[in-house]
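wait is this the right file?? whatever heres the structure
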């Protein structure tokens, strides 16, 4: 395991902000060579994969790694021979009150696994402290630390309140780690109607508010309309695309810093806001390569990618090196704002709200109910009438679409009935998905 003192992590992250783009790229290459050398020495799988690398290799000499490669070779892929996939999966399913480390050294989590193959991800001390400092210095830079105090302020999160959801598990473990102030933390369900969320937030009066943009933006509208009455000092969004328009709505409504962080289970904090709506790549620690459908690098192109290759230069226990992620992105080659870093645009999950039977909900509720439905690979919700949602889906080859989509449709109808819409209809269809007019991923919700 690679470790680092907190003071050293603070120094390295701070130094990265003072470097020129050329200096950061040179440092990036030094860190890449160090990571690859460590991986070849300690990972049997990567040692074989990199066996024919030239001595003076460059980034593009390194082969692309896919999720299935890591899953199929997991025990030989990790660099600690004491780590085994079955133990990691057992660890991430531990009770929320258990705040212990894996093998006494590592943190671990897993991807959502909507296709039934969640990837266990182990992180070492070096990764955790470097990425923690990027959060503290870059994302939260300029915000008084007093705002984050769990003893003096209320903190509200609008998330999916289900065991297995990473955000909810993190919420529960935070409460368990600070039992004396657990009453200052509240988790609100993204499945609730906007009206019910307004009632709960008005009663709780949080200082910080976190959640999905698709849930926070309608709450911002309620704030501007005078129905929501909060005096928050910080708003944090995650998991979905935050548009410039939505960023400005949140700023106008709450009159406080609005933070957005593009992070992933595999690569950590890839890009984050730095005082504006722009997502700046942490290029001294993370390498992002947009690619087309044939895995060709897009380079300077303004074209939306078909995916990206991500390299995390901080994780030495489960190296992420040119790892393929299906997110649709593009990079602005001209640094903006004052921090002189490249910007990342994401044409990914951007969820709307929908009104059915007179009640308004966030699409995030439908998504979280469907995300891990067995044999469902891809899905889309199409609102065909004021009281009707149509579910379209792509199912695994070994499944019966009628059983998969029919079962989920019944489940979603029950979900809507439980939230005050007993007359709502949920149908299913094998019609093709309706594409996004902007290109990129298929939108999760469409209103006809």
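ok assuming it is, sequence goes like this
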């Amino acid at each position: 395991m690679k470790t680092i003192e907190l003071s050293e992590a603070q120094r390295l992250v701070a130094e990265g902000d003072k470097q020129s783009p050329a200096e950061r790229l040179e440092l990036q290459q030094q860190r890449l060579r160090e990571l690859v050398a460590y991986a070849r020495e300690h990972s049997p799988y990567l040692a074989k994969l990199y066996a024919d690398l030239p001595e003076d290799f460059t980034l593009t000499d390194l082969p692309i790694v896919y999720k299935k490669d890591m899953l199929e070779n997991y025990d030989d892929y990790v660099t600690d021979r004491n780590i085994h996939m079955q133990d990691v999966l057992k660890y991430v399913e531990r009770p929320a009150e258990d705040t212990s480390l894996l093998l006494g050294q590592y943190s671990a989590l897993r991807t959502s696994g909507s296709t039934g193959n969640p990837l266990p991800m182990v992180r070492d001390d070096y990764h955790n402290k470097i990425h923690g400092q990027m959060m503290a210095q870059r994302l939260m830079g300029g915000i008084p630390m007093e705002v984050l105090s769990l003893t003096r302020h209320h903190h509200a999160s609008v998330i999916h309140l289900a065991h297995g959801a990473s955000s909810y598990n993190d919420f529960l473990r935070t409460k368990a780690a600070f039992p004396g102030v657990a009453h200052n933390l509240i988790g609100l369900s993204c499945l609730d109607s906007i009206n019910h969320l307004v009632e709960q937030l008005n009663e709780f009066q949080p200082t910080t508010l976190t959640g999905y943009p698709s849930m926070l933006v309608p709450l911002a509208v309620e704030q501007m309309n005078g129905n929501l009455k909060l005096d928050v000092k910080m708003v944090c969004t995650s998991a979905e695309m935050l548009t410039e328009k939505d960023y400005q709505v949140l700023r106008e409504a709450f009159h406080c810093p609005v933070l957005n962080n593009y992070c992933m289970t595999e690569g950590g904090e890839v890009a984050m806001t730095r005082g504006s709506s722009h997502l700046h790549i942490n290029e001294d620690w993370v390498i992002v390569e947009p690619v087309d459908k044939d895995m060709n690098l897009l380079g300077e192109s303004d074209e939306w990618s078909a995916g990206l290759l991500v390299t995390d230069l901080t994780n030495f226990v489960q190296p992420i090196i040119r790892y393929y992620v299906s997110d649709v992105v593009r990079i602005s080659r001209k640094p903006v704002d004052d921090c002189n870093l490249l910007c990342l645009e994401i044409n990914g999950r951007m969820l709307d709200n929908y009104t059915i039977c007179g009640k308004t909900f966030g699409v995030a509720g439908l998504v979280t109910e469907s995300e891990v439905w067995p044999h469902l690979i891809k899905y889309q919700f199409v609102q065909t009438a004021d009281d009707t949602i149509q579910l379209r889906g792509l199912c695994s080859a070994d499944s019966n679409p009628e059983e998969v989509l029919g079962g989920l449709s019944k489940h979603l109808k029950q979900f809507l009935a439980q939230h005050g819409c007993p007359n709502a209809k949920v149908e299913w269809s094998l019609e093709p998905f309706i594409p996004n007019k902007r290109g990129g991923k298929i939108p999760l919700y469409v209103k006809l």
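The longest helix spans residues 21-42. so i think its the right one actually
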